[in-house]
Structure formats: C-alpha cells, structure tokens
Amino acid sequence: MGATNRELRRHFLGPLVRRPQRVADRKAFIDALGRLDNRALGETVLAQLRDVLSSYGSDKANEYWKDPVFALKSLALVTVLYLSGRISKQTYFYWAAYFVEAVHEERWLDGKYENELDPISQAMDDIERQHGLQPDESWSRGTGPEEYIRLNSQYEAVLDAKVLETLREFGLDDLADLKEQTPREFERLRERGRRSVVHRDELALAIRDVVLLYEEDARRAASVEAYSAAVIALGAGVEGLLLLRCLRSSQKASRIASKLPKRLRPRFPDDHTTWTFETLIEVCLKAGWLPPVDTSVGRYNPAGLAHLLRLMRNYVHPGRHARERPWLETDEREYQDANAIYVVLLSILGKIRSNKANNSV
Questions:
Q1: What distances in angstroms separate CA 18 from CA 22, 226, 227, one per listed residue?
Q2: Could you tell me if 42 and 81 are in contact, meaning their C-beta atoms sit under 8 angstroms apart?
Q3: Residue 64 CB neighbours (<10 A)
C-alpha cells in the first residue's frame, strides 16, 4: 500500500531544528513548578520589606541602621525577594551589602577593631608628626612616605578582612566569596544595584547604558553564530539611539510627534519611552536628525536603513517570521548587514560617550 499524502508530508517536512532530549522531563517539570512557587513567595513579603525599610525615614533611623537584629530581618526579606524573582541579582547585592556594611562601619566607629587597628594608626600618626604634619593634616591616599603608604594599605586590608567576616557572619558567603576572589565583579554588581535603587530617574543615562548592553549582547551572540539574537539586539540598540536623540531635543520631538499621521502619532507625546520604533524613526527624520549619507557609489537614506533594521528586528515575533520568512535562518551575511546599518546610524545620531563613573559598570 502506497504512502498517504499525510505520511509523505510528515516525512518531507520533519523538524529542521530539534529540541535537545532531556533525560528526565518529569523532573524538569516539577523543578520548574518549584521555581515558580518560589517566585510567588515574593508577593507576600514585598509589603513587609517596605515596612522594614520605612524605618530609615523615621526619627529612630540612626538606632536601626547599626542594629544587627534589624540587619538580619532586612536580609531575610531581601533574600526571599531575590529568590522569588521580585528583585534582580544586582539589587540583591546592593541591599545585602548595604545592611551588613552598615553594621561593620558602626563596629569600626565604635572601636570594636581597635586591637588590630590602633597599633597601625599610631605608627601612621608618628610618621605624620615626624614630617611636621598638624593633627588635622594627612597625606591623601597613595601619597606620602613609603612606610606610611605601606601602613595605610595594611590598615585598609584589616578593614577589608572585617567586611568579609561580617558578610559571612550574616550568612552571605556568596557575596563574601565574590568580593574576595573577584572584587571588581562584586563592585560592578553592587553599583548596578545601587543605581537601580538610587538613580531610577536618570532616564537618559540609563538608556545609554541599555544601548551599550545591547551592543555587547549582539557581539557575544554573533561570536557563537547566534545571528538571530544578534540582529534583534542591534535593532533594539538602534531604537535606543533614536530615543536618545529625541530626548536630547525633547520639546521639538514632542511637537513633531503630535503632528504625525494618526497611525504613527503616539498616545503620550511627552513620554518618549512609550513611542514605537516606527514613530521614533519618523520623528528623527522630520526633525532633520537623519540626513542622507553620500558615498562614491550613491546616496543612502538613514531613515530607510533604520526601517530595514526595524523589520529585521521584528522577526523576533514567531508569526511574522513564519509568515514572511518560513523555514529561513538568519545567517552571518544578514548579521553583517544589520551591523553595518547600526554603525552608520550610530555615527549619524551621535556616539555614546560613557563618563568615568559608567566605565566601571
């Protein structure tokens, strides 16, 4: 008996990409549900965390911040929020380090470490007197006699060791290990967490950072031939560049946006972060921020290039991809084209210049 059309179709249209076989699908399912259960816990403790942290704004704030019991309660809540997915790893690092280091600093100021620090401090005072410094004078960090610099490094090493001890005392071995083994990574994570809490309103700076992250994601994805992911990241990066340009001339951008055709006109003209990719392109074009680029071959329209990269980025939607590019993969040539568009638009819209504070994160 000959094969039916359905059987032939199944044979010739088998999957071209297969999901890696899992050894224990049932176990993976149970583990996944357990992880989601942990996330759900965050909903019940969020209000408690706010209650605990609100004490910082009270008259008794100076009593609480140095209290180890208060630190333990705060850490318990922060840890649950992190494990439940309510806060990021960076935010967890910031708050956890914040509470513990507050206790450490209070112990230092209260003289709890004087047995180890006083001999070093007295030796440094002797050197200052020998060189004619007044009691209220001292050398800045990294300057002064060689012996003074050595003693100062020794003093700081004792404090660093005490920080590690305090972190481990409060059960934060993960933070202590990272701070001890890769201190720059520890500081990077904590600084990102600090900015997410303290500098949430620095919109333009945050967008610049996001665009740089997209650039790095695209580079990493392309390095392992994940070209679809790389193109999507570049498209998101261009959207960020257009948004930054609109923010630099916010009032002009809003006026232009409010006069766009209804299909492109944003619902909130004054909130540029809610604008669509297409709207950002049209505003930048009408504002004159996307001038044509001439080469020996011809003239390029940056707005058209931006729209092309937008369309490539939109293949992140499965339905669009299957409808417009069925069975096709994004290859290296397409990635290189997308990267060329990104570089041209980056040059036109203005390069992202990170200040010194941004260089460390």
A1: 12, 16, 18
A2: yes
A3: 18
**CA-CA distance, 167 to 190, in Å (whole number)?**
14
Domain range list for the chain: 25-198, 203-360
CA 156 to mean position of chain CA atoms: 29
Helices 332-349 & 203-223 angle (0-180, nearest 10): 150
CB neighbour list of residue 94: distance below 8 Å, 6 or more residues apart:
190, 192, 193, 194, 196, 197
- Region of 288 on the Ramachandran plot (φ > 0 left; ψ -120 to 50 alpha; else beta): left
Check if the beta carbon of residue 168 is closer than 8 Å to that of residue 103.
no
Q: What is the pLDDT of residues 115-146, one digit of tens each?
A: 999 999 999 999 999 999 888 888 888 889 99
- HEC sequence for 311-338: HHHHHHCHHHHHHHCCCCCCCHHHHHHH
Residue 333: partners with Cβ closer than 8 Å, 6 or more residues away: none
Q: Can you tell me the distance from the alpha carbon of 312 to that of 333, in angstroms, rounded to the nearest whole number?
A: 13
Do 190 and 93 touch, CB atoms closer than 8 A? yes
In sequence order, which ranges of 225-351 are alpha helices (DSSP H)?
A: 227-248, 250-258, 277-286, 302-313, 318-324, 332-349
Tens of pLDDT, residue by residue over 205-259, are: 999 999 999 999 999 999 999 999 999 999 999 999 999 999 999 999 999 999 9
* Burial environment of residue 179 by CB neighbours within 10 A (0 to 12, 13 to 18, 19 or more): buried
Neighbours of 258 (CB within 10 A): 12
Q: How many Å separate Cα 101 from the centre of its chain? A: 23
Q: What confidence score (pLDDT) does residue 264 get? A: 95
Q: Which two tokens stand for residue 259?
A: 């006069």
Within a 10 A sphere around the Cβ of 125, how many other Cβ atoms?
A: 13
- Local confidence band at 357 (pLDDT 50, 70, 90 cut-offs): very low
